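Support request from a user on the community tier.

User writes: "When I paste my structure tokens into the form, the page sometimes reloads and wipes my input. The last time it worked, I copied everything first. Here is what I submitted, just in case something in the input itself triggers the reload:"
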């Protein structure tokens, strides 16, 4: 059944709203996935607050242009296009797809948009390997904890040296 003009305009408006609430958009081809695999991916995405939506290329292309995002022509990308976005974490959408791709090689990165700049498939794969917000916070806490423990040991050593003298 063909989409009516009103439903297409609604879809473009929804895509633009989705694009406005996130800094990162990842485009992937999930057309080779079985239904069970797709359900596993959707559960993983929901857990990380990532939205997955299979979109029409022409409507997404129109929404991206109207949003002022400079990208290549989405219609020229191979396969179907699934849009992955996350409003809470910049790399979460890429991480979810990369994590799932470790167990299922049928997921293909097509590209992405980060802060209005187009990322090709290779750049998107590299982007997916960057630490997430949770991982960065964990690293930061580890660094702080290590420095604080050194400070405590130094202060204890100074206290022991003063009490011994």
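"...and here is what came back when it finally went through:"
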């Amino acid at each position: 059944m063909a989409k009516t003009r009103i439903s297409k305009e609604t879809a473009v408006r929804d895509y633009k709203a989705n694009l406005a609430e996130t800094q990162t958009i990842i485009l992937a081809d999930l057309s080779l996935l079985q239904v069970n695999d797709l359900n596993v991916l959707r559960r993983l995405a929901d857990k990380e607050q990532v939205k997955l939506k299979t979109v029409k290329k022409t409507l997404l292309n129109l929404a991206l242009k109207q949003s002022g995002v400079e990208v290549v022509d989405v219609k020229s990308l191979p396969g179907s296009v699934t849009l992955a976005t996350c409003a809470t974490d910049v790399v979460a959408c890429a991480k979810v797809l990369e994590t799932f791709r470790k167990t299922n090689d049928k997921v293909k990165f097509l590209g992405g948009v980060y802060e209005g700049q187009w990322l090709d498939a290779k750049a998107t794969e590299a982007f997916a390997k960057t630490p997430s917000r949770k991982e960065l916070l964990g690293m930061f806490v580890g660094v702080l904890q290590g420095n604080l423990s050194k400070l405590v040991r130094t202060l204890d050593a100074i206290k022991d040296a003063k009490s011994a003298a």
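Agent notes: The reload is a front-end session timeout and is unrelated to the input. The mean pLDDT is 85. The longest strand covers residues 108-114. Escalated to web team.
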